[in-house]
């Protein structure tokens, strides 16, 4: 491990212990921060000089390279890469300007020369990034062939590469925003890639027993993105003749008459021996920044602090109490406002109350008959205010939808409401689906009160057309 700061670089620390290597990070002391950029190239040169040939070097930085324009230094780095054949992977959690700045593009240049990548990620993703690097280095030394390297800008691209000899695996790594990646073998048939790591910043795929010959790759991406393909000459995990010798937390696959044992996700080892990876041992192995990490067999969970909830990526995020009605106590005719640590409720226009209890209030100085519509998750609710119906001489019990069996009921809020499920034909609903959204349409009718003397002067019936539109689940 090599530290690089401004202006200091070094020292170089060596160890064969994973625990000691982890402690190197724990013992780092950051002070007088805010410098941007940093001497990343100077640190990389020192690492290349101190590492064996064919090493994998990870550069972890939150800034661009201050020494990008030191021509002598850059040429020395390029020479070291050529001689040592080391692979450089940049993991960048911050920028000093933008991705077109030469202080950042030097990372892409070095990565391209070394068969590496530049991964732009946030601190919460460091755990998956370290596990990615662990997957890269979990192979015997000098056991791979570099088969293909492609660096692209936005768009769709096609390339080919050769598998020159018998290989146990193809390892394909990607960087950037890639929306489509397709690979076809010598027989031109598409092949299925096994996902090892899949993140927004990059992915790794594996293909067992690739056939010799010419292969084709099609990739579509946005912004700068890259693809690297390596071939493994020997399996990166244990070989055996009997799957029963694989660890219980390992998978067993057939390869050329033998069996390959591979530890499952969340475990590390050679497949014969697999140990649980303690993601809680170091903060960069988990995403529990706002909570407490609890290690489990093969994974971990986050016990979040008050006001936070764990999402599908285990990250503790502030609870959005207004995201759905079940997470707040606001009245159905109130507006919920998220405040960061909680929420507030305010009655909607035409209603009065404290936001938790709201009643219809426009029953004086009535100029017209108001219409109230609620597009709920599972139903539509159309209403007329009872006081206004009475004011204009309409029947409180004469409210209905196009489907005459769906009639209105006066509730405690002062509304005469009719509800309809989100289903075509129910209560007279009609449905329009444009592929991304579905719209439900209906009509609300109200008849005059026959007991009112001048009811004949009223419009019969009153008709209010309404609709509710929802995004389709597939589009969401």
Automatic annotation (TrEMBL):
It comes from the Eukaryota. It holds the Pfam family VWA_4. GO terms for molecular function: calcium ion binding. Residues 239-275, 276-317, 318-357 form the EGF-like domain. Keywords: Disulfide bond, EGF-like domain, Repeat, Secreted, Signal. Transmembrane segments: none annotated. The keyword Disulfide bond applies. It is found in: Secreted. Residues 374-476 form the ZP domain. Its main location: secreted. The keyword Disulfide bond applies. This is MGC89178 protein. The lineage of its organism: Eukaryota, Metazoa, Chordata, Craniata, Vertebrata.
